[in-house]
Design brief:
This protein is mainly beta. It is built from 1 helix and 7 strands. Strand 5 and strand 6 form a beta hairpin. The chain is globular.
Length: 64
């Protein structure tokens, strides 16, 4: 079982992109995507695995 850590700040997102750390995307309490990389992010959206998510509606977790 893998351990996860919430990515809440821009610094967290940047480090995941820089070190190509796989993440999980949780939307409305359900796992949407797992093991993919953050491709881009802004204040409003995050692109993970070719899909855009609104940052305020999802939770990104770094897979450690």
């Amino acid at each position: 079982m893998s351990k996860t850590t919430d990515c809440l700040t821009d610094a967290d997102m940047y480090l995941c992109m820089l070190f190509q750390t796989p993440v999980e995307v949780w939307f409305d309490g359900e796992l949407e995507d797992s093991g993919t990389l953050i491709e881009a992010y802004s204040d409003d959206v995050i692109k993970v695995g070719g899909v855009y998510y609104l940052r305020k509606l999802c939770l990104i977790k770094k897979i450690a």
